[in-house]
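Exercise 7.
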Amino acid sequence: MTLANKDFILTVGKVYLLELVKEYFGLESEDSFPTNNKPQKNMIPFFYSHSTLSKYLVECLDFILKTEVLLSPRLSLRVRAGSYINRKGQKGKNKPADMEKENQVKFLKDLISGLGRWKTEQSIVKISKAGPVLHSISTNFDQMCGIKDIKSTHGSYV
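Solution. The predicted structure, written as C-alpha cells, is:
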C-alpha cells in the first residue's frame, strides 16, 4: 500500500466518522445545534440506574416530552437552540446555557457576600438587580483596555 493510498483511507475514515457523529447528535454542521434527542434518550437508563428520583432523569424526560410531544415543531426547535448560548459570536463556540447561569449565580453570590454586615433583604435585591449591569460594564471596560482575564483552577478571590 502506498503512502497516497494510506492518506486517502485516513481522510475518508475521518470524514465517515465525522458524518457518523453528526448523524448521532443530529447536527447539520459543526456550528449547528442538535435536532434530535438521541443523546438524552441514551442517558435515561444511566440516570434511572443512578436514582429513580434523579433531577437529571426528570430534566431529561421533561426535555424529551416538550421537544417531541407537547411543543410545535418550530417552538421545539427554539427550545433546542435555547439550550446553548453563543457568547463569543464565533462558529462552533457555543457555551451551555446552564454553565452561563452558574457563572451568573457565582458572580451574584460574590457581590452579596461583599455586602458584609449590611446584608438586608432590600440590599440583596438591589445588588442582584445591579449585578448584571456591573458585570457588563466591567467586562466592557476590561475589553476596551485590553485587560485579560486571569484564570486558575483555584477559588475566586474578591
